[in-house]
Design a protein that fits this description.
Mean pLDDT of chain A: 88
CATH topology of the largest domain in chain A: 60s Ribosomal Protein L30, Chain: A
Radius of gyration of chain A: 19 Å
Strand order of the largest sheet of chain A: 1-12-2-8-9
CATH architecture of the largest domain in chain A: 2-Layer Sandwich
Distance between the termini of chain A: 36 Å
Order of helices and strands of chain A: EHEHEHHEEEEHEEEEHE
Strand content of chain A: 15-25%
Number of domains of chain A: 2
CATH superfamily of the largest domain in chain A: CofE-like
Oligomer: homodimer
Largest sheet of chain A: 5 strands, mixed
Number of helices of chain A: 6
Chain lengths: 263, 263
C-alpha cells in the first residue's frame, strides 16, 4: 500500500532579494542528513523574491496597448486595473490569448498558459511591487536542490537528494477554481507513463499518463495555509518518483499549442 | 502548520454489480467509530461497477456516425477503434468537442469535459465491457456517505461523518498528462474562496479560489498504486473542508461553457 504525507515547514521568514532559500529551508527538514527521496515543494513567490524576479511599478511606463487593455479589463471587471501591471503582464507574455472579465489569459515566455502571465500582485512584500514567475523555474529548482545537497551533506550516494518542486496556482479550462501545478522541478519524474502497461487484471491501462508533479503540487498546497507564510511543504511517500539526476524538469509538462486537444 | 496524509485502503475485492461499497470500505477505516472529518476518496470505476454503470459491448449496435468516427479515429491513431465503444461514448456525451489523434474530447451528460466521455475500457472487470461514469456521481457520493454513517455509528453529532469524494482521471488543456479530479462529492467544500480575503501581509489574495476537492483527488491518486486494486484512499488533514451537510457536490466545480476563459 502506498501512502503520502505532506507538512508545511514553519518559521521561514519573509524572503528578500538575494536570500539563500535552501539555507532557510534546510533547518526545517528532518535531521542533519537529508531524508532520502523527499520532495520539497516551494511556492514560486518565495523563489522569485529570492531571485529578485520582482518589479517596482514606479519603474514601469505602460505602453499604449497596456493602457487600452487596462481600460477594457477595468470595464469588463467593474473595477480598476493598473496599466503598469498590465504592462508587466505583457512583458512576461509571448501571447495574450484572452482579455475578458478583468483577466488576461496569457502564454508566458516559458510556455505556461495562465492568468496574468503568472504576475502576482497579491503576494508582493511591498505595495506597488509585483512578483513574476522565476525567469527559468527549472534552473531555479536545480540550483536550490544543489544547494540543499551541499548544506545537508551527501547522503552517501545510494539515496537521492530531496527533489525540489516549484509551484504556482493556475486556473483550468472547464472547471472552477485553481490548483497548484509544477512550474519548476529538479530530481523528480514529472510524468508517470503507464500507457501500454497492464493493471492488476492484466488489461492495458491505455490512457494513463499521470502528471505526478502537478498532483504533488496540488497535494502540497493542501498542506499550506494560504493566509500564513508557509511557502515550503515537505512531501514523503513519493520516493518512487525521486531521481538522482535532475531530470527533464517541469518543462516536460508543457503541451505544445498544436498538439493540444483540450481547447 | 497544516499537514496532510493519505493512505490507500487495501483488501478491497473486485467490486461487482450490487455490492455495498460502503460495507467494503468501512473495515479499512480506523476503529469502530468514524474518524471525524476524514475524506474518503474513491476511484469512480469502483462506484460505477457497484452501480452497474457498465455496458457489455455485445449489447451495443453502433450507429453510422459511430462507425465513421471510429474509422477516423483509427486512421489518426494508427490503431483500431471499436465502433461499439465509440457508440457508448456518444451515448454518454452531450457534445463531442474534438475527434483527433484517436481521442474523442466530449462534454458528458453531467457537464464534465474529458476524453471519451469518461468511458473506461481499461478498468473493466471483463473483456468486452466498458465502465461508465456513475449516472449522478454527487448522488452516489451522498448515498455512500449516508451508508458509511449508518455502518460506523453516529459520531455524536459534533463531528461530521467522513466526506466522500469520487474521482476520475482527466486530461487538461495546455499540459501533458492527467490528474485526478472530483466528479462526485458529499460532505466536503469543493472550493475554498479566498477572493477578497487578506494574506499574512494584509494584502488582498485577489485571485485565489482554490479547487480543494480536485487537489484532494490528485493527492489521493498519489497514494494509490495504479497497478493494484486500491480504489479507496483515506485522507486526513482536510478537517477544515469537511461539513455536516452534504453540500453542493462536485457539480459546483463545473464552469459553464460561456464563462470559460481558458479555452
Amino acid at each position: 500500500m502506498a501512502s503520502l504525507s505532506a507538512r508545511g515547514i514553519g518559521g521561514i521568514p519573509e524572503v528578500r532579494p538575494g536570500d539563500d532559500l535552501a539555507a532557510l529551508i534546510a533547518p526545517g527538514l528532518d535531521g542533519p542528513a537529508p531524508q532520502g527521496a523527499q520532495v520539497i515543494a516551494i511556492a514560486h513567490t518565495a523563489v522569485s523574491k529570492a531571485e529578485s524576479a520582482v518589479v517596482a511599478l514606479d519603474d514601469v511606463t505602460p505602453s499604449e496597448r497596456a493602457r487600452e487593455l487596462a481600460a477594457d479589463l477595468a470595464a469588463s471587471a467593474g473595477e480598476d486595473r493598473d496599466p503598469r501591471v498590465v504592462q508587466v503582464v505583457l512583458d512576461e507574455s509571448s501571447e495574450v490569448m484572452r482579455a475578458e472579465r478583468g483577466v488576461l489569459i496569457c502564454r508566458t515566455r516559458h510556455g505556461f498558459v495562465c492568468a496574468n502571465a503568472g504576475v502576482d500582485v497579491s503576494n508582493a512584500s511591498a505595495a506597488d511591487t509585483v512578483v513574476l514567475l522565476p525567469r527559468d523555474p527549472d534552473a531555479s529548482a536545480r540550483r536550490i536542490r544543489a544547494r540543499l545537497r551541499e548544506l545537508m551533506g551527501d547522503s552517501g550516494g545510494d539515496r537521492p537528494a530531496p527533489a525540489v518542486l516549484i509551484s504556482d496556482t493556475f486556473g483550468r479550462a472547464w472547471r472552477h477554481g485553481q490548483t497548484d501545478v509544477a512550474v519548476g522541478l529538479a530530481g523528480m519524474q514529472p510524468l508517470d507513463d503507464w500507457r501500454g502497461r497492464t493493471d492488476a487484471s492484466g488489461l492495458t491501462l491505455r490512457a494513463t499518463w499521470l502528471a505526478v508533479a502537478d498532483a504533488a503540487a496540488a497535494a502540497a498546497d493542501l498542506a499550506r495555509m494560504k493566509d500564513s507564510r508557509e511557502p515550503v511543504v515537505v512531501i514523503d511517500g513519493l520516493e518512487r518518483y525521486v531521481t538522482h539526476d535532475d531530470g527533464p524538469g517541469a518543462a516536460a509538462l508543457l503541451r505544445s499549442p498544436d498538439e493540444d486537444l483540450f481547447r
